[in-house]
Design brief:
The complex is a heterodimer of chains A (387) and B (309). Chain A has 387 residues and is α+β, with helices and mostly antiparallel strands. Chain A is built from nine helices and 21 strands. Chain B is 69% helix and 1% strand. Chain B has a domain at 81-262: MetI-like fold, CATH 1.10.3720. Classes of the chains: A alpha+beta (387), B mainly alpha (309). Chain B: This is Sugar ABC transporter permease.
Chain lengths: 387, 309
């Protein structure tokens, strides 16, 4: 086991494309860290750098106290689980798991003991003499796990290992993987584009974003799943974590005697905001207000902050998601406007989670209020959270 | 309730059409079966019959006398049979092995994305596209003791060349013939092996690297087993072609000096198309067919024993 530190790591391809830049974080010994982000955010590249399969152009990669930035994958003692499992198709399950051990010139009896032990743990004993082609997706996935754990490596790297499984199996394997990690206590770096996977599995989650030049950093925030949800550092993280995504509304802030008033741009709706010292500095300016879909409450028309017709409602059984439009300019989380203002035209579609019993009939207006304490505020110029 | 009545279309269909429909698979495969029978089975059977007759075309157009197994006895005891068989086996085994090893090395180099590889790939296919006869002539000039390029190069780097030239000396002639064949056919192995190596998923190689396998182990235990089927088949094809080597020998040495480069293929040509000894050459053909089939059958048995198809 080992700690793994990325120190201002960067990768630029010969054609000038910046895949990764300025990423710094440390995975503690035994920790399970998930890299999550949309495609092109550099998460797989970072993982492959940790494996030694991809070389970094700048920064350093430290395992424990050893600089492994330019060490060959053979000499890193790291195990990786690939998206397509990358099992050796011509070898049996036993041989697949034994291969890594054979490379270390381990005695045959010792290899046999370790492989059987791992097979037992993963419920693969019955399949040891089969070839990968004769296994189901879930079983192949477990063989890939087995191949990694028999070696007792310093760290596990997992590249979207569950993405080829069907939904039900994915949930099951998610649990098994997490359990296995707790049992073995091996440092793990896990890549996924699925935020549910990230939130449920990671001790900490790193949210990454594609970058266009080497001055930015892919790493937006690294924190525990709950902190990412409760206190997103910026618009990107706020918009990425949470499903459905957080709603963003442009408002004008003005101080009004005891507190602050936010006026929704376009509709003119006024919201009295609880006093917040950080927010006071933004009085008289435009800011972005973030509302999680689960923070809406159905109320009487008199109390309503939003009272719009609902063109789309998605009934999920336990909850219903209702979508409605307000006449306010939309917010693009990837494109913060430098001027801090924008035109008041446009249509902004919001989504709220409500109890199914409160679902309005088609074309009927739905009066909604918001839990004011749980609003999020962002500076439109930088995209950073105001707190 | 509604009753649905089905009208069987069979009754209305013409007899001719249903015949075509029923026998379509056989009709489609028939041309190739007929071609095989006409071009392979018939000549082989014809040769089998001829092999039991004394029949020399210089004497007359019809078989002259039934001689039983005499032709076979004569073929096996001929002055050149031993030499031709040894040379043929040497050429086939050594040639196939060297061409495979060299071709594999080239294929592995091609896999590395070095600058200029596209051009190399395109050039590589060239020797294979030239007719063996032309390659023969090409190498005759290259080997020429009076001013051949290869002779000159070897002499200038200090390797002694026999005065009669590489093709004129019994000790080097067979190697010289083999070299021409290697020059022509190594690229064939290189291209085919390169193509099949491309189909080995990169992730599997990466997994092996992370499993701490050396480049050599990855080649022997991952890459080669994964391209085994292709390799088995091209080795078999090339072995059979080499076993029938005739045209390069004809152009380069005519089997000489002495019997040093004589192959079974060349002996067949000499008996059949120079001496017109149809009975004898038929017996020799059958001996050759038997030998090559026994070798290939053994090879196929051992090579495919552990393969699931």
């Amino acid at each position: 086991m080992a700690s793994l530190a990325f120190d201002r790591v960067g990768k630029t391809y010969p054609d000038g494309t910046v895949a990764v830049s300025n990423v710094s974080f440390t995975i503690e010994n035994g920790e399970f860290v998930v890299l999550v982000g949309p495609s092109g955010c550099g998460k797989s590249t970072l993982l492959r750098m940790a494996a030694g399969l991809e070389m970094l152009n700048s920064g350093r990669l430290i395992m424990d106290d050893r600089d492994v930035s330019h060490v060959e994958p053979q000499d890193r003692d790291i195990a990786m689980i690939f998206q397509n499992y990358a099992l050796y198709p011509h070898m049996t399950v036993y041989e697949n798991m034994a291969f890594g051990l054979q490379q270390r010139k381990m005695p045959k009896a010792e290899i046999e003991r370790l492989v059987r032990e791992a097979a037992e743990m993963l419920d693969l004993t019955r399949y040891l003499q089969r070839k990968p082609g004769a296994l189901s997706g879930g079983q192949r996935q477990r063989v890939a796990m087995g191949r990694a754990i028999v070696r007792h490596p310093l760290a596990f790297l997992m590249d979207e290992p569950l993405s080829n499984l069907d939904a039900k199996l994915r949930v099951q394997m998610r649990g098994e993987l997490k359990l296995l990690n707790e049992r073995l206590g091996v440092t793990t770096l896990y890549v996924t584009h699925d935020q549910v996977e990230a939130m449920t599995m990671g001790d900490r989650v790193a949210v990454l974003k594609p970058v266009s030049d080497a001055t930015e950093s892919n790493l937006q925030q690294i924190d525990t799943p709950q902190m990412l949800y409760d206190r997103p550092a910026n618009l990107f993280v706020a918009g990425f974590i949470g499903s459905p995504a957080m709603n963003f509304v442009r408002v004008d802030l003005s101080s009004s005697g005891a507190g602050l008033t936010a006026t929704v741009i376009g509709t003119g709706t006024q919201i009295t905001v609880p006093l917040n010292t950080a927010l006071l500095n933004f009085a008289g300016r435009q800011v972005i207000m973030g509302i999680r879909p689960e923070m809406f409450r159905v109320c009487t028309p008199e109390e309503a902050i939003f009272n719009e017709a609902v063109p789309v409602a998605e009934a999920l059984g336990a909850d219903t998601f209702v979508f409605f439009d307000i006449a306010s300019p939309p917010v693009d989380v990837n494109d913060t406007d430098e001027a801090g203002t924008s035109s008041s035209k446009g249509k902004n579609r919001l989504v709220a989670r409500i109890p199914p019993a409160k679902t309005p009939r088609p074309r009927e207006r739905l009066p909604l209020t918001v839990e004011l304490e749980s609003l999020h505020w962002f500076d439109p110029a930088t995209g950073l959270a105001i707190r | 309730m509604t009753t649905i009545t089905a009208h069987t279309p069979v009754a209305t269909m013409t007899g001719r059409r249903s015949f075509v429909r029923r026998n379509l698979p056989y009709l489609l495969i028939a041309p190739s079966v007929i071609m095989l029978l006409v071009l392979i089975a018939y000549p082989l059977l014809f040769a089998l019959r001829s092999s039991f007759y004394f029949w020399n075309l210089q004497i007359g157009p019809e078989p002259q006398a039934f001689v039983g197994f005499d032709n076979y006895v004569q073929a096996l005891n001929a002055f050149d049979f031993q030499a031709a068989l040894t040379n043929t086996l040497l050429l086939s085994f050594v040639g196939t092995a060297l061409e495979f090893a060299l071709g594999l090395s080239i294929a592995l180099i091609l896999l590395r994305a070095l600058p200029g590889m596209n051009v190399v790939r395109a050039l590589l296919i060239l020797p294979t596209t030239i007719a063996p006869i032309v390659v023969g002539f090409l190498f005759r000039y290259l080997y020429d003791p009076g001013g051949g390029l290869l002779t000159w190069v070897l002499t200038s780097i200090g390797i002694p060349i026999p005065a009669v030239g590489l093709l004129g000396s019994p000790s080097t002639a067979l190697a010289a013939v083999l070299f021409a064949d290697i020059w022509q056919w190594t690229p064939f192995f290189a291209i085919v092996l390169y193509a099949s190596l491309l189909s080995v998923p990169e992730e599997i190689i990466e997994a092996a690297r992370l499993d701490r396998a050396s480049a050599w182990t990855i080649l022997m235990r991952i890459k080669l087993p994964l391209i085994k089927r292709t390799a088995i088949i091209i080795v078999m094809l090339r072995f059979m072609q080499l076993f029938n080597t005739f045209d390069t020998v004809l152009v380069l040495t005519r089997g000489g000096p002495g019997t040093s480069t004589r192959t079974l293929g060349y002996s067949l040509y000499e008996q059949g198309l120079i001496n017109f000894n149809i009975g004898l050459v038929s017996a020799m053909t059958w001996i050759t067919v038997l030998i090559v089939n026994i070798i290939v059958a053994l090879y196929v048995f051992f090579a495919f024993r552990n393969e699931e198809w």
